[in-house]
Design brief:
The chain is of the alpha+beta class. 58% of the residues lie in helices and 17% in strands.
């Protein structure tokens, strides 16, 4: 009977050792899990400002791209002729629109200038009326 008790005791002690090892392993894993969760949590705290800055730069880049795209003109180049019949300072002029290029606007303006005793003239690119200035504003004005 002594051998059965010893066998039972050795089985029980090996089971206890195994349980203790498993508990130590579980405890070790739970500590590692808690540490990894703490690392994820702390890295998420640091990630929020980084994500915000990246989002801010992306928004700024998209805005600049859209502004630049809207600034490029797809409309054709149109020239307008201004012949100042009473001189530049009079504010009176003859205006003709829709010339395809500068040379055609220039030749027309020179013809009209000769009709009005060599009146000053200019050709303007993409002219539009500006109500705040009460006159036409052009991207460029040439009289060469």
């Amino acid at each position: 009977m002594g051998t059965v008790k010893e066998a039972t005791y050795s089985i029980a002690s090996s089971s206890m050792q195994e349980i203790a090892l498993r508990l130590a392993l579980v405890n070790d894993l739970s500590i590692k899990y808690r540490l990894s969760l703490q690392w994820v949590h702390s890295s998420m705290k640091n990630a929020q400002p980084v994500i915000f800055v990246i989002t801010l730069f992306i928004t700024l880049g998209v805005t600049l791209y859209l502004i630049n795209r809207s600034e490029t003109r797809s409309e054709p180049e149109t020239w307008s002729s201004f012949v100042y019949t009473n001189g530049y300072n009079s504010g009176r002029y003859k205006k003709v629109d829709d010339f395809d290029d500068y040379p055609s606007c220039r030749s027309y303006s020179l013809e009209k200038s000769a009709q009005y005793d060599q009146a000053p003239w200019e050709c303007g690119l993409r002219c539009r009326f500006d109500s705040s200035r009460q006159g036409f504003q052009c991207e460029t004005m040439n009289n060469e």
